[in-house]
Fold this protein.
Amino acid sequence: MSLAPGRPALRDFLAIDERERLVALAQTVRGRVLLFVVAVLAVSTYNSWSEAVFVVAAAMAFATLEKQRQLILFAATYAMAFSAFWLSETAIEENIAVVAAQEGIGHVTPLLLAHLALITFMIFSWSALMVVRKHKSFVLARRPVIALLAIYVVFCGLTSLDLLHGLPRLALWSFLSVYTPYIWFLAYALGDQRARDRSPDTFQLGTFHPFWGGPSSIPFGKGAGFLRKTLSKTPADLAVTQIKGVKLLLWSNLLLGLKVVLTWLCEEQLNIPSVELAVGAYLDGQGFPIALGWSALLWSTAKFCLRTAYWGHLFIGGARLAGFRLPRATWRPLEAQTLIEYFNRFSYYFKELLVDFFFVPTFFRVFRKHPRLRMFFATFMAAGVGNAIFHFVREVDLLATMGLAASIESFTSYLFYCLVLATGIGISQVRANAGYRPSPTLAGRLWSFITVWGFVVCLHVFSDESREHTLLERSSFLGSLFGVS
Amino acid sequence: MNVDGKLKLRKFLKEALEKHGDQGELSDSESLFVSGRLDSFSMMQLVMQLEEAFGLDFSTVDFDVSLIDSLDEIAAFVDANASA
């Protein structure tokens, strides 16, 4: 054994990836079978048994069969994507069905349209990669995110502003429903075309909603550029990465278990309502104890955090099984002592997306002579503007069900959330750069915890995804929790 | 980049790593950002540090993280782009 000296006993015990015998075992057939079985058990809490077996087998095959990697990644990713349609695991078919009903089209099934839209998107993406390689001055090559968002805006306009009708509208809407959850993946791939060691197109396309990454619009593992640099290089390196992957999968299951227990306790035993119900009850003038309101807010925030961490660990665990030495998606968020630290720790790959596509371009272009303003503004563009755009774009289905105007109006509360969050994180960033360090004492740590998480919990009132209540109604509810009516 | 510049840079990077709870060794060729040891915000702080110390203008560079992913790469980048 070669464990780190001076580390707490529990951490030493959990550091199984540092045990030489286990690392050696993980390089044998017996060890791989053991990793496979444990991983399948862990992944099956999210996927069906057959999907869990498929995901883990594909990940381990990718890691082991070096010459077939591109084929495995591409085939496994699109097998999962198409099977998700068959198993109705995505909202895409539902979105298509809404517009099909609006247009009175019953002879083409949403399932068929979803398949055709995904094939069209794959061709579109492949063509886009070729175009930006050939024409480096093309807007798609120079400003991929702006170009992709412009396409989104045009398609949204065409499908929701009474400009198209019948099958053309349905066809375009089907494409938009598939295009939207893939935007950020395609943006990473387009950006990677500038790299000297860029990955082949099949590898790039295989990283769009990769088979380990679930339905999330956040690219867990970023794009091909980041993934190829983090790939394990030696058998020992791979064994350590896979053991870490299994550890993370087990950790995700512990978090899931905690969420199940807390849900039972809070919702079934203590009857704590959701934020949506709590705000509704408050607005209806029902007698609503302040303590119950705070409980609703605290529990809702905790549930959101547990869900985010569970998914992140599950997806990164899967990627590590494939041999990618990826950093964790959530890393001890409760230890965050400042808001910028919270932003870094809570959802790493979402933060990276915002930094890569909003912070970095802003940072290199504006206020270069004013370092503090430059840092604040770039942070604001990421945590505020980027965050708002990501969430608005992600919920494209609301354009069909609510219409463009109502969809934008219902987004006001989340927009406010982004504005306040970004201002807080921006100030925290500037303070950190100016040398501010929170007190390392116990009292200082406690104060940091209360201020950071107090801010996050209070702000959660506005980020609730139901879109049920207006900004004013939510503000009024939050005020009531402080005794202001 | 001279020895003094590299020492200063190493000190800055070690401090950034410690802020991330990373007390590990830092070799000249080791990946900082792609490996996940440091995040994008630390990268931007490094960019500011390099702009200030060496008069670099990153807006004229087709920026990619691999340009400054290790001490060796940063030194090579500075040598190729420093105005003074």
About this structure: Residues 3-12+32-81 of chain B form one domain. The longest helix of chain B spans residues 3-19. Chain B touches chain A through 18 residues (CB under 8 Å).
